[in-house]
Specification:
This protein folds into six domains: 212 residues, no CATH class; 208 residues, 3-Layer(aba) Sandwich (Rossmann fold); 75 residues; 105 residues, no CATH class; 160 residues, no CATH class; 40 residues, no CATH class. The protein contains 34 helices and seven strands. Helix 3 runs parallel beside helix 6. The longest helix has 76 residues. The radius of gyration is 53 Å and the shape is elongated. About 10% of the residues have low confidence. Keywords: Coiled coil, Repeat. It comes from Ceriporiopsis subvermispora (strain B) (White-rot fungus). Pfam families: NPHP3_N. This is NACHT domain-containing protein.
Amino acid sequence: MSLKSRLHLGRKRTSPVEGPVQSDNATNSEAHSDRFGDELDTVIANILELLDVTDDLLSGVSVPGLKEALTIVKSLLDRVQKTRENLEEKDDVCESIQALLKLLRSSIEAICSAEQSTSETEDQDTMKNTLNSQLLQSQIGDFVQALNKVLKLSRKLDHSNFLSAAWHAKTDASVLERMHKKIDEARDQFIVRGELNKARLLSEQLNEAQKTRQDAERHHIENRLRELQRLEEEKREKENKILSGLTPAPASHRSDNTSEKARLEPGTRIIILNDLVTWATQTDIEHRVFVLHGGAGMGKSSIAHQLTRQLAEDYIVASFFFNRGNSDCNDAHRLFPTLAHQLASCNENLRAYIVEAVETYLSKGSSQVLSYQAHDLLESPLKQFLPSPSLIFFAIDGIDECTNSPTYTVPDVLRLLCDLAHQIPTIRILIATRPEGYIMDSLRFDDEDERGCTVQFCDLQQQPNVDADIRFFIDAELKRCAAGRKLPLLLARPDAADTLTRLSDGLFVYASTVTRALTQDRYYAVELFDKLLVSHESLGGTGIYARLDALYNHILDNAFSEIRTDATRVVHTQHVLAWLALVQQNFTVANLQAVGIPEHATSYVIDRLRSVLEVEDEITPTTVLKASHASFPQYLVDATRCHNSTFAVVPSFGHALIACSLLNLLSRDEPVSWAGNKAEQLVRGAATYVQWPPTSDYLSSNEQSNHSENFEEHEGIWPEQPSFDLWAYANRSWIDHITPARLSEPLNEALALFCKTRLRDWIVCVRPWGHPYAEYSAVDVIERVRDWYERQEGRDENILTFINNIVIARRQELANEKKRRFRRYLQSLWNPAPRTSTSKRPYTFRIPHWKKHPRGEAKLKPLPTILEE
């Protein structure tokens, strides 16, 4: 029973109408009230104890505001405790305070339990964020504010003395009643707000948890993507490393080496281009090989280049543009590896098949015959890719410029290409070439051969609208040169464009060359045009190249007419023209200076021949000597076409000039114009390493090995300068220039110097004078030089004897080396036979299983006997 109930029972026994009994009841009531007050004090003491326990619990919880709430409750309890009247109302307030403390204690215990159950760092952070959340702080703040109002109200219970307290007993009862209600309201509001906040916090925690899961999933996905990207990069790097083993040639339509072929004037050759696009994009067609043939200068390469660029936007495209003047682009053995490398870069699905095929191919050797190249690198992976409907287009341009054998290599390549197109229906192959007999015969098959149905021929000279295209091109070039002004040529000769179109006679190279010649010097254009017109009218119909040759003759006459009487400049010009016509590699002005041609002489020739050379900007030491079309070098060396006796290149004389220059270069103590003192010291050290003058003895094997290792150790510092390209060309090609040359006094002196200083190092392959041939091939090459020299008039017998002794000595050395290798081989196979203590059998040689005796038992011989044999 509560204090309040017991108080009511005590009052029930009190009656105001009974006399003596009333007095007794009053006495009993007072005694009961005193007892009730004592019990109330005990309750307050218990509440204070509960308050202290709650305060201790709160010390372990960092919840802002609760400490202040407990302080207010304690102050309220102190005020209530001092009140001696109105015990019933006082009891009500104490019950409210006790209920409030129980609520706070349960809340604090719940918080402590939650904190103790959180072990993970993330859970502790979540708990900390919850306790400091705005919702909880708002709830506690409102609660403290309500208690402060109650505390403010309780100040009315303070009285100065007992009489004042008795006087205001009725008012204090009302205050206590209001305090009781407000405390209950604050408690109820705290409970309601707590439930609401709990729901909101739960919602926020769910959202936070969902966000955390989403962040975790996102991080997982990002990490997975990074891992996949890393694996993809490693895979790509491995694939690139495998593909690099093909050593592709820079001969695609994207290569800078084919830039001179990418000059099809927009608006020209529309009909043939449309026909080729229609042919290449048809899904079901019998003729899968298109042979576009025509003479030099008709624009075959430009058409092939434009078609390749156009199809590359939507189809799988690979191309190879042969170039006789570029050693990387004139070898048929580079064709199939280069096409395979390009295919791997065009399509990701096809790339996997190509890489697998290349890895298998390279495991059997990097240099294989053409049939294995075509089958392993193209046919096999493309057949695996065959279910794909994607069309695959190959463009092979200028195979007539291939320097391989026209008897075997080139026909084999063409037949393999036709086989490939016959086997795989989605392949289209364009072959642009001159109509050379060995090429056209290789592309024509017997009626019974199914490959014959695959090939379609097209003569470019028979195409319509060729003159209209040339006229369009000439107009465009003249307008480009005029740049808004009227050309003197068009003012003086209004029909010049029509006349030039007629003179071109279907040759784009003629139209290109003549417009460049006329626009190079606009003020002499009228004079040159009139000369061309007169000479062409005298030619009549003498052949398709007669007019082109006449144009070249006029260009040579106009270019060098002023130096004909200057012997020195004529010699320099002849030397430059010989390098232009006979050297199958492009060198710069600085390169030619290294072989004795002054820089100003080469620059002068390039400047005067701008109309037939590839020159774009100002001439510098790095400007390359390069013809804009192959017909000009061919014209220079053809005596039936070039009628300029002063500047025509006689092959035997031109090769002699070049061979003399290369031999003098190789005879120097070091390569010229090296970049860096370290490289200069290295090469100079190599020169002093060998004892000069040479004798009939060679370096020992150990000396050769040490000398080779000396250069291998420093191979990485060799500078990639133009002069090094020239040095490498001299090492590789001096043989190719000396054997077709006619012996002259300068060439004889250069050969003598080379023999006395460097021939021994060259044939033994001592760097940097090493040859690019195999050991025995190098001896065969020197024998060719000896045989050539033996046929020359004015030869020096001492030089001939010296070369012969070099060949004999080297062959003997190679024979001895072969014996030493065989001896080491036998020693590696030798196996001592097992012997017992009484056995006296000598060591024996165990014959390999493939050399066993026909009867099945290996016939063993003693090792000393075998070595003697």
